[in-house]
Design goal:
With 807 residues, the chain is of the alpha/beta class. It has 6 domains: 19-51 and 62-169, GIY-YIG endonuclease (3-Layer(aba) Sandwich); 182-252; 262-404 and 413-432, 3-Layer(aba) Sandwich (Rossmann fold), CATH 3.40.50; 463-509 and 568-704, P-loop containing nucleotide triphosphate hydrolases (Rossmann fold); 510-567, no CATH class; 713-801, Ribosomal protein S10 (Alpha-Beta Plaits), CATH 3.30.70.600. The chain is built from 23 helices and 31 strands. The protein binds a DNA duplex (12 and 12 nucleotides) through residues 42, 45-46, 48-49, 52-53, 71, 73-74, 76-80, 83-87, 104-109, 122, 124-125, 128-130, 160, 202-208, 233-237, 240, 793-794. Component of the replication restart primosome.
Length: 807
DNA sequence: AGCACGCCGACT
DNA sequence: GTCGGCGTGCTC
């Protein structure tokens, strides 16, 4: 089979006409062509290797030929942009269908793979074919639609089909019987200490001696990886010992994880719907009734009752025998949030990061069997095998955590829209501060706009004060961390026994060590990122690679003993706070103090019970916390967020200010919100203070258009990474040159190569190229095709489609 | 991705 | 010989 034929028989041919309302349908086709072209190219490359293959073939000739009645195309979890063909014997033939997992031997190892297509013929030379060893499922683990979705992910996000499948399947399903095998070593039978003499004393056999001695001492199998790592040897000496017949290598099954039990917490909530809510529910219910794809932006401020809309729509779906998926940002996946759904619907499957592999498998099976019809979870829950899917909810759709940081680098919100389109479901994107992409889609009528105007509770929105920090200096003229206004409000709030939250988006005490002579800042020599002073450790730490060094006495670049600390992190805020309000009970939440989930819950619990007056924290306190007694919220500096090297910095700043502002004045007590900044005219800050997202979005939308950024263009980022800087530079400039030659500047604009924002990370040099293409046209799909051809493994190349950040 | 295989240079 | 460190190419 191989080329066109196989695809036309199998599911692979069902080329999905889907996309994010752009030209992706065309993208998908072109990317598939690239996949095929690659396959053809590979075939030619085989010629050189023919001799080796023949040798193997002769050895194998003794075995009886495989009696194939069917051929299966199979996707393996490897970054290979193609599938492999296996023969299927009569015994397995009826069970081998697309979506079923099989066990196959691939490059000498037994692996779990997913059948993507079947055919009755093949082009693959018979001598090279292997047979499917086992069929692992009676029923496909993925139905046709989900399989199609994984194919779309592979094409759109430029990864292997097997990698896309790997993101969809629970970890336990990627191993046989939920187990994985590992290579172990032990002495050959009959080998004891006496045999060590053969190796002793000869310096050249030193490694082998150490390996054998360690294995004899261990009196049992040792993991190969552990041993080579511990003894700092390569596979070479191990292999030599095998040849001498002194040791044996074996593959064994790794121990499975233990099954833990989770608990549930319910929270009843029923309210009469506002007019806006009722309109939204009605509109969405109509779409459910019509089995119609209906993407909608549910747009309303915090407390406007988005959750109640989700709940009602899901109720309607369930009443019609349909299921639902609710995506929430990982950080919002708390017992409180989940409780609403658990309470309203009987059978809810919750997927969270704390679960073991076996727990996830259990949930997956319960969903697939139809026992659980509502799934609540973070990013990967978008792949839950919900039967007869009627509704997908993406809460806080603007959250960057929906973009996966590793392969496949998918955006769960975008996948949600595509999946809903495939199955004709409703897709509700909810946010108070929508992403510019979704806002524009709604404005352009590609999404239904459902606006929730009034706050369901009727509370007025809190007033936000912008404080200009340019005027705030102490007696010696140095910039102050707390404005006089914030200081006064803090004292008053504490005096009234009300609570305050202070937000700072930096960690540590003083982030930067700065030389007064040469104006250099101390940077991590492996990451090129400014190192941060951690007072408790008395050390400088790199937030990128976690490296720590003692605080240098003199400047490393000019040797002047003129180092000073600059800036302020959460720890410094806490410290100054203790000076301002010595009797206040202060809690701090950042990734330094919050090592475990329990720490997080404990501090929040204390604050909730009123045992703390002030909570100081980083990003992690900006979202989703709901404390009625908080009446003061301060953003110590909104500037850091504004000055990120990213075209979404303004959007993020608006979201930050808006979210933090949402922490105050939620109950009957009036709230104060103070935003400290030196950029008082910045639209993101001004509009957020005025709770005016529309004005901000209009302004930002125009900026994006003017600078040619999404949602007016598409971006694709390629990062090369290697220890050898020269190789990285060569590969990236070669790629950029080819891309420029092949693609006209009107099709795709090629920017770079340039050092990536983290130009040096863990000793690896990083260079990136940014591609920008207009929304219409085939630019990006052609770029993807070219890139897949340039796919070398020397400098590692990573493709990020629709990158969420430039870091 | 792994992982063999082959080649080279260093050491002894 | 032995060993480690590369680069190259393959896996149905």
């Amino acid at each position: 089979m191989g080329t066109g034929k196989s695809r036309s028989n199998g599911i692979g041919a069902a080329r999905p006409e889907m996309g994010l309302f752009g030209p992706e349908a065309a993208d998908v086709v072109a990317a598939s062509d690239a996949r095929r072209a690659h396959k053809g190219a590979n075939k030619g490359a085989h010629k050189g290797a023919q001799k080796g293959a023949q040798k193997k073939g002769q050895q194998k000739a003794k075995k009886p030929p495989i009696e194939a009645v069917l051929y299966a195309e199979v996707a393996l979890n490897r970054p290979m942009r193609r599938e492999y063909t296996y023969a299927v014997t009569a015994a397995f033939a009826d069970r081998v269908v697309p979506g079923v997992r099989v066990a196959v031997s691939f490059s000498g190892k037994r692996e779990v793979a997913v059948v993507t297509a079947t055919a009755t013929e093949t082009d693959v030379p018979k001598g090279r074919l292997k047979a499917v060893d086992d069929v692992l499922d009676d029923e496909p683990v993925l139905d046709e639609k989900l399989l199609e979705l994984t194919r779309w992910i592979a094409d759109y996000y430029a990864c292997a089909w097997g990698e896309a499948l790997s993101a969809v399947l629970p970890a336990a399903m990627k191993r046989e019987g939920g187990r994985k095998t590992v290579a172990v070593l032990y002495p050959a039978p009959g080998v004891d200490e006496s045999r060590l003499e053969e190796l002793e004393g000869k310096p050249s056999l030193e490694k082998q001696y150490r390996v054998l001695r360690t294995l004899l001492d261990a009196r049992g199998p040792v993991l190969r990886k552990d041993l080579t790592k511990k003894l700092n040897v390569t596979f070479g000496p191990v292999q030599s010992l095998v040849k001498r017949g002194l040791i044996v290598i074996d593959q064994v099954i790794a121990a499975p994880d233990d099954l833990l039990s989770g608990d549930r917490e319910a929270r009843p909530r029923h309210a009469a719907l506002t007019d806006d809510q009722a309109t939204a529910v009605t509109r969405l219910t109509e779409a459910i009734d019509a089995d119609e794809f209906c993407p909608a932006l549910l747009y309303g401020v915090t407390g406007s009752g988005k959750t109640e809309v989700y709940l009602r729509v899901i109720e309607e779906a369930l009443a019609r025998g349909k299921g639902a998926i609710v995506l929430v940002p990982e950080i919002a996946l708390t017992p409180q949030t989940v409780g609403w759904f658990l309470d309203r619907f009987g059978s809810v499957a919750v997927l969270h990061s704390g679960m073991t592999d076996l727990q996830r498998l259990d949930m997956w099976q319960r969903v697939r069997s139809g026992e659980a019809r509502v799934v609540v979870g973070a990013r990967s829950a978008i792949f839950a095998p919900v039967k007869n899917l009627g509704v997908i909810v993406v809460d806080e759709e603007h959250e960057p955590s929906y973009k996966q940081g590793s392969v496949p680098r998918y955006h769960a919100r975008d996948v949600a829209v595509v999946r809903a389109k495939n199955v004709g479901a409703v897709c509700v994107l909810g946010s108070a501060t929508p992403s510019l992409e979704s806002w524009r889609n709604a404005n352009q009528k590609r999404y239904v706009l459902l606006r929730l105007r009034a706050r369901a509770s009727g509370n007025p929105l809190p007033k936000v004060e912008i404080v200009d920090m340019r005027g705030e200096r102490d007696e010696r003229g140095k910039p102050r961390l707390f404005s006089r206004r914030l200081e006064t409000l803090l004292r008053e709030t504490i005096a009234r026994s009300e609570q305050s939250i202070l937000f700072i988006n930096r960690r540590g005490f003083a982030p930067i060590l700065w030389c007064q002579e040469c104006h250099e800042t101390l940077k991590c020599n492996e990451c090129d990122v400014a190192m941060t002073w951690h007072k408790r450790l008395e050390r400088m730490a790199c937030h990128s690679c976690c490296k720590e060094i003692p605080v240098p006495k003199a400047c490393p670049s000019c040797t002047a003993p003129a180092l000073r600390f600059l800036g302020a992190g959460s720890q410094r805020v806490e410290e100054i706070l203790r000076l301002i309000a010595p009797h206040a009970r202060v809690g701090r939440m950042d990734s330094d103090t919050m090592m475990r989930r329990e720490d997080y819950e404990e501090t929040l619990g204390q604050f909730g019970r009123g045992e703390l007056d002030v909570l100081v924290g980083t990003q992690m306190i900006a979202k989703g916390l709901d404390f009625p007694r908080v009446t003061l919220v301060g953003i110590v500096s909104a500037d850091a967020s504004l000055h990120q090297p990213d075209f979404r910095a303004s959007e993020r700043t608006y979201q930050l200010v808006s979210q933090v502002a949402g922490r105050a004045g939620r109950a009957d007590l009036p709230g104060h919100i103070v935003v400290q900044t030196t950029a008082t005219e910045e639209p993101s800050i001004v509009c957020a203070a005025a709770h005016d997202y529309d004005s901000f979005a209009l302004h930002e939308d125009a900026e994006r258009e003017r600078h040619g950024y999404p949602p007016y263009t598409r971006l694709l980022r390629v990062v090369w990474e290697d220890e050898d800087e020269k190789r990285v530079l060569e590969a990236s400039s070669h790629a950029a040159k080819i891309l420029r030659e092949e693609l006209g500047p009107h099709q795709v604009q090629v920017m770079g190569p340039a050092p990536a924002p983290m130009a040096l990370q863990r000793g690896r040099h990083r260079v990136h190229v940014m591609l920008k293409a207009p929304l219409s046209g085939q630019g990006m799909s052609r770029a993807r095709a070219i890139l897949s051809q340039l796919h070398t493994q020397r400098p590692r190349m990573a493709i990020d489609v629709d990158p969420a950040s430039m870091m």
